Amino acid sequence: MSGPAGRYRLDLAYDGTEYAGWQVQPGRKTVQGTLEQVLTRLDGGEAVHVRGAGRTDAGTHARGQVADFRLRSGLETGELAYALRRMLPGDIRPQRVKAVDDSFNARRDALRKCYRYRLDRSPTGDPFLARFALHYMRPVDRAALGAALLRLPGRKDWSGFASSKCTVENRVREMFEARYDEPDGNEGWFTFTAEGFLTHMVRNIVGTLLLVAAGLQEPARLDEILASGDRRLAGETAPARGLYLWRVDYGGAQATRS
């Protein structure tokens, strides 16, 4: 049953391997573009614009992306969720649909975002993780890596870890959490939570941390990069396949997430 026009919040997960990132790009398959095509069909052919909380890179995945959009048709949330599950491809999965106030903006209203980076630590490489993790066989110096991670939380200028493609002028962000865990010895997870991230910031941080973990750089290299803002001092950009937009946090009525 349909009601009046309204705005919706969509929580979704996706495998980004086959997509040129989140954001719409002419002539390329993107997650945002795929969503907009399906929603436009559901709204009677009227173009629907989707806003996402984070603009993930080509090949990057999401477990907890959040988006919002407005439909003229005003579908019930259960009806809309059912239709999206049937019409979207299997590598984009709606987790929850919620009717929200028209002022809600998935990107602007986000308080914190959490990204995680996955390492395959198995000796030969797990073929079932090839699309979803970076195979990293080298021993990890946990003490050195821990000392490097301790340098990251706080309010800092992250220019030294930003891509040359980054067009944002204000590059100061507060990072709340930076850690590394190996829950079972076969996988490693970097976790970063901040109020926002710059283009390729997490992947550039991971590339640098892996140099420290391998004993090729000292933990103090992080201080140099942050102080100088010189991207050339940082490591290579880690491959997109290991990166996940894990969670987006909101306050008030939007605080809960499926």
Summarize the structure.
With 258 residues, the protein is α+β, with helices and mostly antiparallel strands.
Task: Give a written overview of the molecule.
Helix content is 20%, strand content 28%. The chain is of the alpha+beta class and 258 residues long. The protein folds into 2 domains: 6-109, Alpha-Beta Plaits; 112-247, Alpha-Beta Plaits (2-Layer Sandwich). Strands 1, 2, 3, 4, 5, 6, 7, 8, 9 and 10 form a 10-stranded mixed beta sheet that branches. The longest helix has 13 residues, at 201-213. The radius of gyration is 19 Å and the shape is globular.
What's the arrangement of secondary structure elements?
Blueprint: E1 6-14, H1 31-42, E2 51-52, E3 61-71, H2 77-87, E4 92-100, E5 112-120, E6 134-135, H3 142-149, E7 154-157, E8 172-181, E9 187-194, H4 201-213, H5 221-228, E10 243-249
Parallel strand pairs: 3-10, 5-6
Antiparallel strand pairs: 1-3, 1-4, 2-3, 5-9, 5-10, 7-8, 8-9
The number of distinct β-strands equals 10
The helix count comes to 5
The CATH topology assignment of the largest domain is Alpha-Beta Plaits
Query: What general form does the structure show?
Result: globular
N-to-C terminal Cα separation, in Å? 24 Å
Overall tally of domains? 2
Main sheet makeup: 10 strands, mixed
CATH architecture of the largest domain: 2-Layer Sandwich
List the helices and strands in order: EHEEHEEEHEEEHHE
Instruction: Supply the helix-strand structural class.
Output: alpha+beta
Tell me the strand percentage band: 25-35%
Helix content: 10-25%
CATH homologous superfamily identity of the largest domain: Pseudouridine synthase I, catalytic domain, C-terminal subdomain
Cα Rg = 19 Å
The whole-number mean of residue pLDDT values reads 93
CATH class of the largest domain: Alpha Beta
Low-confidence stretches: none
